[in-house]
Fold this protein.
Amino acid sequence: QVPLVESGGGLVQAGGSLRLSCAASGLAFSWVHMGWFRQAPGKEREFVAAISRSGDGTYYADSVKGRFTISRDNAKNTVYLQMNNLRPEDTAVYYCAGRRIGESEYTYWGQGTQVTVSS
C-alpha cells in the first residue's frame, strides 16, 4: 500500500494556477511533518515547501516563495500545495513526502504527479 498519493497535476499556461493534493493512508498523519519536492528532467530532486505536523510552521524554497502555499488538513489526512503564477521553470514531477517527528529524513514518499507549464 502506497502511503502517499498525489493528485492535481496537469498542463497549465504560464501565469496559471494548480492545486496539488496528497492523501495519506496507513500512517499517523498528524504526527508527520509533510513536504513537497520536485524533480525536473535532467535535474536533481529539490525541496519546494514543508509544513509542520500541526500546520503552524511552513517553509518554502526561495524560488517559490510568494507564489506557492502549503497547507494541510489533518482531519482529512491530506496536504496541499497551491501553486499560483506558475512559470515554465516550475515544470517537474512533484512529490509529497512525510518525515516522522524526531527524524531528519523523509521516509514516506508518493509516486509523483506531473506539472507542465507552457510558455
User: Anything to note?
Assistant: Residues 35 and 100 are 11 Å apart (CA to CA). The mean pLDDT is 95. The radius of gyration is 13 Å.
